[in-house]
Design brief:
Blueprint (H helix, E strand, L loop, with lengths): L3 E5 L3 H13 L3 E5 L2 H10 L4 E5 L7 H11 L5 E5 L4 H9 L4 E4 L4 H14 L11 E4 L2 E4 L4 E3 L4 E3 L2 H12 L4 E3 H8 L5 H18 L5 E6 L3 E6 L2
Parallel strand pairs: 1-2, 1-3, 3-4, 4-5
Antiparallel strand pairs: 6-7, 7-8, 8-9, 10-12, 11-12
Helix pairs in contact: 2-3, 6-8
């Protein structure tokens, strides 16, 4: 399995150049043009490195990095920016970045920075993300959006499956609403918040057959997916 890189760059031409170079270096690259799309893709797939432009529409690179850090504290994040002031770099590191590359940069420098960042983490490329999850009497097929029990096979919508996947990932922990909203919808405004409540209600209904599973509201914070092992 190839090392997978999420590249977020709103300059389409530059994004294609960087993507082509990383592909030629042997990496599998997903190119996104804004932070909202990137966060949604991050939630849908497993990546080993994120490369993020700082100035982007819809969601800037620093905000994107903070959202990614709520989902994954370990993945390396490399910022790309035309801003070279010290305070800009400090802001990048405070947002959760691991390295900061100032534009314009050489292909060789990018190659070395990527290589160095990947060395810092213990990559388990051979072990793909779990696709079939057992939760009590249910079997959750992450890729095919199905929830199976002894009595029923339920087809989930894409968003239902994404939300359940996140809840299970943070099982027996309190997960803030905004983490789910940003990961699934790419934003956390009032209207998508109401949609999330509807999806949570549906998931509770689907899972009611298993008394060991409970999705509770944590007032003013978010939710807790509790499952007795």
């Amino acid at each position: 399995m190839k090392i997978k890189i999420l590249l977020v760059e709103d300059d389409v031409n530059l994004g294609l150049v960087i993507s082509d170079q990383l592909n030629s270096d042997g990496y599998a690259v997903t190119l996104c043009c804004d932070g909202v799309e990137a966060l949604q893709r991050f939630n849908q797939e497993t990546y080993h490195l994120c490369i993020c432009d700082v100035m982007m529409p819809k969601k800037d690179g620093f905000t994107l990095a903070k959202d990614i850090r709520q989902l994954n504290a370990e993945i390396p994040i490399l910022f790309l920016s035309a801003k070279s002031m010290t305070e800009d770099k400090v802001a990048g590191f405070n947002a959760g970045g691991d390295d900061y590359l100032t534009k314009p940069f050489s292909v060789e420098e990018l190659h070395l920075r990527v290589k160095a960042l990947l060395k810092r983490v213990n990559l388990k490329v051979e072990q793909p993300e779990e696709k079939i999850i057992s939760m009590g009497c249910f079997t959750f097929d992450v890729e095919n959006y199905t929830l199976k029990s002894q009595t029923e096979l339920k087809s989930l919508t894409k968003k239902e499956a994404q939300i359940l996947k996140i809840l299970y990932k943070f099982k027996n922990q309190v997960i803030p609403r905004e983490v789910i909203l940003n990961a699934v919808w790419g934003q956390d405004d009032y209207f998508v918040g109401r949609s999330l409540d509807v999806f949570i209600t549906k998931l509770r209904k689907y899972l009611k057959e298993e008394p060991k599973i409970h999705i509770s509201n944590v007032h003013a914070v978010g939710f807790k997916f509790e499952i007795q092992e």
